[in-house]
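Thread: quick sanity check before group meeting

JM: Hey all, I'm pulling together slides for Thursday and realized we never actually wrote out the predicted structure for the chain we discussed last week. Dropping the sequence here so it's in one place. If anyone has concerns about the input, flag it before I start.
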Amino acid sequence: MHQVVEFFSGLFATEQWPARWHCGTWSDFHGWLYIISDTMIWLAYFLIPIIILKYFTGKKGQVKFSGVYILFATFILLCGSTHFIDAMMFWIPMYRLGGLVKFATGIVSIFTVRELFKILPVLFSQKTNLELEDEIARRKQAELRLAEANANLASFAHIASHDLQEPLRKIRTFSSVLRSSNPDLSDRNRQLVDRIESSAGRMQNLVKDVLTISTIDREIELTNVNMNEVLAMALSDLEVKITEKKAAINTSPLPSVLGNKAYLAQVFMNIISNAIKFSKSDPVIFVKSVTDGNNVVISISDNGIGIEKQDLEKIFKTFKRLHSKDEYEGSGIGLSTCKRIIELHHGKISVQSTPGIGTTFLIELPKD
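JM (edit): ok, ran it. Output follows.
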């Protein structure tokens, strides 16, 4: 213990040892070779941790294993300090300070190695830059193939939809002609003709819906849109249905949003049309909005039949129907189209419902 106290009390003492120039026989060349080498190593070891810490602070919060970075920088700095002290020994024999710095270097190096062993499994499991670049290249190729496939699918759907419309129109026309030109048709045959016309009509609507969802662009131009005008467009298109069902539409002033007018009108039309359709009494519909930070949340509520809890997510799937076509008409595409349009607007659509009481659709869109 006495030696430890004596060591630290004379930590910077130099009088007990001669300067290194006076230890042994040093030629100028040999001595300066030693000094310059140690100085260069110290300079490099001094700059390396500065570079590491500069990188670390620039990427603060984004760098994995930050503790290892700090330990490694400390270890390098201490290593450099031992070389600097060795160079200074030629004039100032700081043997005690040199021994203490080397001991500290040893301690930090042990902790650094310990941390490295702890993270080695994670490091070995991570991909190299070349592997990541290769994966990125494969993903880009896959995205190109997917984009091409989507374009081909959209083109096919467009062509198929148009080609299907004409024979369906002819089926309905010929069925109508058959009924009108044969007044003596039996009730059974008249029912068959009606069923042909009804099936052809449903097929026409399905083809129209497929064409609609296949032609929604992934890239759309977003501008300042007055949602009151959008709602008016949708209600105008639904005027006949609203009158037939004696629906009451209650609206509040809506704000402007960043969006596409035609697409948003389609969303309103689909949701309000469903609210009218899925109602067992006179439909009452409320359309209102609230502002939430940089977003606008528009709610469309009805007094319809409602949706069971387990079916709330299913309704946004393409061709998903919760009721038979005999109960309620439709193709099961309308709400999936709405979801796709809202997502293209960088928004969200969700639904809340109580069976037998009603349903509320919530549409969140970026504020203008």
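AS: nice. The chain has three domains: 2-126, 130-214, 223-366. Residues 2-126 form one domain.
JM: adding both to the slides.
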